[in-house]
Every structure is written in C-alpha cells, then in structure tokens.
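INFO batch 0412 | record 1 of 1 | parsing
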Amino acid sequence: MATTQKHGRDILCDPETNKSTAFSEAEKEHYGLIGLVPDIVEDIETQLQRVMMQLDHKTSDIDRYIYLVNLLDHNETLFYKTIMSDPTRFLPIVYDPTIGEACLKFGHIYRQPRGMYLSITRKGMVEQILRNWPGQDVRFICVTNGGRILGLGDLGANGMGIPIGKLQLYTAAAGVPPEGLLPMYLDAGTNNETLLSDPLYLGLRQHRPLSEELYAFVDEFVDAVQKVFPDCCIHFEDWTGADAVHLLERYRDKVCCYNDDVQGTAGITLTGMINACKVKGTRLRDESFLFLGAGSAGIGLSNLLCSALVEEGLSLDEARSRVHMFDLNGLLEDSRTDLFDFQRPYAHPHAPMPRNAFVQAIDEFKPTTLIGVSTTGGAFGKDVIEAMSRVNERPVILALSNPTEKAECTAEQAYTWSNGKALYAAGVQFPPVSLGGKTFLPGQANNFYIFPAVGMAIYATRAKRVTDQMFIEAARAVADQVTDEQRAQGLLYPMQSNILETEIQTAIRVARLVFESGLAGVHRPENLEAFIRGHVYVPEYGG
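INFO prediction complete | emitting tokens
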C-alpha cells in the first residue's frame, strides 16, 4: 500500500487506505493490523466477488445505492473497482435514475458526512472553513445549493447526493483520481415546506434569501477557493435556472469553472444531433429546433447549439432563428414581459401562443428536432409525436428530463407513435424496443458522457478556464465513437459498457483544444494520448 503515517485501526477507518482482507502479511506486521482483520490475504477480485454476491441479495436499487455508499465510506478502492467493473449495471444505481430517489430520502438514509457543508450563516468565514478540509490539492469542487435537483425541484440539503454522485462519475467514467474531488453543499436555506417541517432534514431551517444576498455569499466562496485551492475547477450543479445562468456568466471569464446543467447538457444534446444528422444525411445547419422548457438547461443547450451552427457558417442571428422555445406560459415571443434576460434572444416576433398550442407550433414551425427539458413527464403525447412525424421523414425526439418519471415520453412511445420513424434518446436509459420486426436501441443523452471527460482534460492540463468550445469538441468526440451499425439501429450515443475508453478518447481531443487555445497550465507533451492515460486512476491496491 502507499506510504502512510496511519497505524492500526486508523488505517482501517480511512477509506483511502483501508484494504480490508487484502493486506499482505508484511503490511499487517508493519502497520499493526494482526488480529484486527481476518487472518487471510485476499486479492481485490475475490473481494469484488463478495460485493457482487451481497448486492445480488438486495431487492431494490435504492438498497444497492445505500450499500455502495457504505462501501465507499469504508473502502474507496473496492468501491471504484465495483463501479468500473460493470458501468452499464452500476451507473444507473450510483446516478440516474436511482440518485433521484436517494436525494428525496437523503436525510433519512444519511450515514456519515461526505464532502463539505457550507452555510450562509458562516459569512465572512468561508476561507477559514475551506481550510478545514484535510486535502490540500483539491482539483474539482462540485457545488450545489439544492435549488433545482434533477426534475424534482428544490430539495435543499437533500441535494447533496448530486455533487457526491457527480464526482463519483468523474472517476468511474473518466478515471479522474478521487483524492482531488470535493463535493459541497452551499446551504442558503430552502423554500420546500415539507423539508422545513421534516425533523430529519439536514439543512438550515430558513427560506432562501434574495439573489443579491446569495450572490454575495457565492462571491466569497469563489474568492476563497482561489486562495485555498488555487488549482481547483468549480463545477456548479443543479442551481435554479436563473441562478445557474447568471452565476456562470458572473465567473466564467474570471476563474476556472463551468455549469454542467448548462454546458454539459448542451454538449450531450449536440452529440445526439450530430449523429442524427449522420443518419439523415443532413448537416447541423439544416436542422431547426423546438424546445419544451426554457430554463437554464434549455437556454444553455440553445446557446451551445447556436455556437455550433455559427461554426458551420451561419450568423448568430440566423442560428437563433432556427430555435423556438415554449415554457409554462407558452411560446417565447417578443411581446412577453415575464422573460429573463437570457431568454430574450429566443423570443422572436410572433403572436402569443399558449402552452396548449404546442402541436400547432409543430405544424407551423415544422421543426426537425423536438427537445424536452420541461421536467414534465408525458408532455410529448401521441399528438405531439404524430405531429413531428407528419412534418419529418425522420423526426428527432430528445426527451431529456429525468428521473425516469419526468421523461417527456418513453422510447416505446416515441417509436410506436412515429411508426419507427423517430430518432430517439432520453435523459435516462430505456430498454430496447421491438417494432415491426426491427429492434431499436434508444440512447441515453446523459451528461456523464461529457463532463467527466472534460474534467479529465482540465485535470491533466491544469486548464486556466473552461470554454464552450471544450464542450462542443467533447460532443463531437463522443459522436464520432458511435459506429455506422449502431446508428442504423437508432443509437445516437456510445454503449455504456465501454465508457472509460470512450471518455479517454474524448478527453484526448478536449486536451488538444486546451493546449491549442493557450489555456493549459502545463507544457504540451509530445504524446497526448500517453499523457492522458498517464493520469487515469486504476482501482487497484498499491504495494
């Protein structure tokens, strides 16, 4: 094992040093472990076999999630060995869709602290509090205020499950070493009355402050990170829509940061569009888009799509004209007075259209692509899919809301109602669909194809800033790894079973862009692939 100053039970109580039954005889003697562990020496494969057996005895994915979190709290290496041994099986357990249930129950299934909890009541003390973290070389902080967790809304402190899970994906999906990852909940209260009255709720029992007070606290947090963890990238996650957009704009040109809901969601959607165009034999600039949902995800997605369209030769105004958006109050159009500043570029001149005129909008605008970021389960009904099929030979249907019950339509619905014409993906994984003698493979348009790979590129290059171009390049790199045969079955994203290699290849391309953009904090290596692979974490015990 790696050199450590710990001894005896201290080693066993530290998940980074604990090897449980895998300590060698020499290690047991040297570290005073004889008698504290069974008198055998197992390899990690035997330990993995035991974990798999115990998981098989669990009757629900939430029970498996709790078991795996407990494993992480005791043996970090074995946890990642488990997740990385079968990502297709375990990613839906440690993240979507199980993470949604875990967040709803977070205060009730809580075992022990992981990460940091930073309360707005500690204003003026943030730098001092960050120095309480035992690690000095923190490379990523994933921070949420719990304001908009998945499609579940304001979950306050229960949202801490998201940064914990997101950072696990950095390691499990892209090999970013776990010791430099810090999940954080920035606690400014919650407006969820159910949680405020729950005796087991773990957060501040107060309502959320006005934006001015919240932003001042986030300013202090961002400044403190630069002092305490100068090589750290801040990953904003699951903030309310307006805050997500405004905070990203506030910091993106000043510090190394990004927002996965805005940029990661946009990147993975762009991946699907690139492959849909390959199937249809079109170019991205030939597409037009109709959104249901105009929050941070929808706007961020639209902005990145427009950036990609500009790269294909359109002007920014021409690109934006290809995008129409609906929210709860109907079509975004120029007479509306209830829009945020970041929604205005997509409010085109048009007569008002209520939310229930969505099918009418399909017939009028004739979009080639329908994108759902509404968090409204079943919003793409039969009439919507049939309308898209009337105006398109191969309609693209992206039902991106999660968890599963929030998806705008299922894969089976999209394929059935379109008579197999749809090119479909969802934010969660749906099983293959058999229709008319053909099997369709619905893809999962999940950010975990994008942000861990971008994270690995940032980690390896010590990038000074994060740009939209990095997410565009990541989207293209992921898209290029889907084969012609897979696209023929309707698959728009790579198979999850090989996700580590997919993300390594993506990270290589993003890292190349970082160097070419002059944003790297290290010298460019001669062999970029070897450089990235040299940073990849392998879940094996050290000698």
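INFO post-check: The mean pLDDT is 94.
INFO record closed
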